[in-house]
Amino acid sequence: MSHRASKEGRYDEQSCPERTIEVTDKLLRETVGCLSRQYPTHAVGEAASDSLRDLRPHLEDGLSALADIERIRELTDQEYSRQRAFRIALISSM
């Protein structure tokens, strides 16, 4: 259930911070959705760790894109929410 993008895809996403954030958010939502549908509550832990570990590069890219935006302007409420979600997922991937 890993979501691995090609190096080219990640490079293209990095040229547009908003696109990087959208892609990261979509991947995180898909991962959480798959985990909740495919695993019983007591068995989700290990699968979640593996899936979040695969998302780690995207989470880092998403947080970096949000930091780039934050240097230019204040983040919107939605961007703050995504920033928190990406941080929580990144910490959980360790």
Helix and strand composition category = mainly alpha
Beta-strand percent range: under 5%
SS field, number of helical segments? 4
- Shape assignment: elongated
* Mean pLDDT reading: 85
Distance between the termini: 18 Å
Share in helix: over 70%
The tally of strands reads 0
Main beta sheet strand tally, sense and closure? none
Q: List SSEs in N-to-C order.
A: HHHH
Number of domains: 1
Poorly predicted segments: 1-14
Evaluate the radius of gyration: 13 Å
Give a brief rundown of this model.
This protein has 94 residues and is mainly alpha-helical. It is 80% helix and 0% strand. Helix 2 packs antiparallel against helix 3 (44-72).
Tell me what the structure shows.
The protein is mainly α. It has one domain (16-92). Helices cover 80% and strands 0% of the residues. The chain has helices at 7-14, 17-38, 44-72, 77-92. Helix 2 packs antiparallel against helix 3. The longest helix is centred in the middle third of the chain and has 29 residues, at 44-72. The model is unreliable at 1-14 (pLDDT under 50).
